[in-house]
Amino acid sequence: MYDTSGSYSVCYASPTDADLAQRLIWLRAEIARDEARLRKPARVADEWRALRAVRLGQPLTTREAYAWFGMFLGLFPPFALFARLAVAFLWHTRGRLATEDTAIFWVLLFLAMNAVCCLVGRKFGGFLGRELGDPGERSWPVFVLYSMLMGIPWALITGGAGGAVGFGVGAFFGIAFAVPIAVAAFPAFAILHRLLSRGGMIEEQHLWPLAFGLPLVAAALVLGWGIH
């Protein structure tokens, strides 16, 4: 029944059984690790969103981020331009032509133009952000060039719409004012947004300094250097 001719006897099967059990444990662990690795890409975006929502508030999509940026970019720089025009008008006329009715008319006109720039800038900024999608999907050279080109249609639509409120011919001046600002501001925002976002999602605490701060810097340049 037993093989006693050699150094090994089937009576001592426990070492083989232990080795087999250890190999089975290792095999099960490898299978579980492979399954987890295959499932991870599909779950990472949802897990990231859930984690950030619990810890830091709801993250914003690329479309929402560019919509807020476009709104503030359509708000602050045009307001700075209108403020410079009003101050220059009052300074050169010394108040001789600035009657109360005239002042109210120009203030209302400037506010209407500013409101149109703000609303159109937000709407078209969101459209551009939706078309961009996940910023990480493009290589850096292509992404930077694309972000510069994004500023041109935004400036044409936003500056043209806001300027058109000023008797129609203002559309040309609005575009001329908006293009250099948008071509400089959009790449700056796009690069910083890509660095701070994950999978196209950016936390609110990172978005607001960008969406609010960059247009304020552009407005400060308009006030300080007289870009118009």
**Rounded radius of gyration (Å):** 31 Å
Strand content: under 5%
Q: Which segments are poorly predicted (pLDDT under 50) over 5 or more consecutive residues?
A: 52-56
H/E order of the elements? HHHHHHH
What's the number of domains?
A: 2
The averaged pLDDT comes out at 82
Biggest sheet character: none
Number of helices: 7
General shape: elongated
Separation, N- and C-terminal Cα atoms? 104 Å
Q: Helix- and strand-based class? A: mainly alpha
- The count of strands amounts to 0
Helix content: over 70%
Structure description:
The protein is an all-alpha fold. It has two domains: 58 residues; 164 residues, no CATH class. The protein contains seven helices and no strands. Helix 2 runs parallel beside helix 7 and helix 3 packs parallel to helix 7. The longest helix has 43 residues. The radius of gyration is 31 Å and the shape is elongated. The termini are far apart. About 2% of the residues have low confidence.
Outline the secondary-structure elements.
Layout: H1 14-56, H2 62-73, H3 76-93, H4 100-132, H5 140-164, H6 170-196, H7 204-225
What are the main properties of this structure?
elongated, mainly alpha, 0% strand
Summarize the structure.
With 228 residues, the chain is an all-alpha fold. The protein has helices spanning 14-56, 62-73, 76-93, 100-132, 140-164, 170-196, 204-225. Helix content is 79%, strand content 0%.
